[in-house]
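Data deposition worksheet. Section B asks for the primary sequence of the deposited chain exactly as it was used as input, without tags or linkers unless they were present during the calculation. Section C holds the resulting structure in token form. Section D is free text for depositor observations; keep each observation to a single sentence. Incomplete worksheets are returned to the depositor.
Section A, Depositor: J.P.
Section B:
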Amino acid sequence: MRIAIDCRMIGSGGIGSFISELIPHFIKENECLLIGSHEQCAPFVREQNVLFCFCDIKPFSLKEAFSFPNDILNEINHCNCYFTPYCNIPGGIEIPVFSVIHDVVFLDVKGLTGFVGKFARKMFYQRAINFSNAIFTVSEFSKERILHHLHCKKPLEIVYNSAPAYLHEEFDSPVSKKDQILFVGNIKKHKGLKILLDAFEKASKKSADFKSKLVIVGNAENFRTGDEETVERIQNLEQNPEFHGRIEFTGRISNDQLKYLYAESKVLLQPSLYEGFGIPPLEAETVGTRAIISDIPVFKEIYGDFPVTFFKSGDSLDLSEKLLSFSAEPFTEQEKTLILNKYSYAKSAETILEKMKNICRA
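Section C:
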């Protein structure tokens, strides 16, 4: 089977990681046409079964939808099927299309965007459904929300996320735990950073022994836009002498740096109010760091069997108490086996490829 794969979101956070991890499994037994920039496709162009098609058309642009270059469309339409890791699909594709809707957070969570933004996103989601022969999503929770919001009579399959390959590699140097709490996310309200900041302050005031550092992965400047309440909480804590030097923004970091941060931290905090999957707890536990996470439905689905600590979603007092009572004990061998084996991109790729084969043969 010859598969055209949209690589244009490689380097764009979780979706970029999702497609980067699937490609090695796709190319094992299939010829793949990778569509994207030289930089995005560089890790794979020397592999067997790989062809490359340069494309600098931005995802979700008008040009993508209505005037995608004919030479690229010609390359795509000579394949058996087209796969995109998100819900953007170029106009003019004549072969079976397979797309992924990771979540519908903009339809579920109020205040993330205005009426026009919400309407536009819903149109993109619905367009993906209309143009796709099958759609994939990353959890039963997301599947239920997609069916709730969108008209979907196409096959809708679950393909879970997993920890990326680089987290399974051996460390180049020994890693020692530090008295630091790690947050990996952004400032959008549904990520719950304000709840974490409130809990961090409450724990510090309740116990003089609580001296942990809070490390936030990202640039401080990038956190100045978004949820105003969270911005205000950051500013207040930064100006409070009691917290001087205890809150750090990492800036943009490499995968290797993130891997060490995961491993060095005593705990990963994921206080999300909403997720489609929520991968940081899995990534942290893959390298031996426990996680405290909110008890939202999707986390109960994904991490219900995992050695995580749940706190009441949105409750900073409960989170502060969980922080004060937390013990960073090493995982047992049984826990390690569960963490490493429950989810895998090999299984997800197998599900996608099987659906492709069935539809392309029909």
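Section D:
DSSP finds 15 helices and 13 strands in the chain.
The mean pLDDT is 92.
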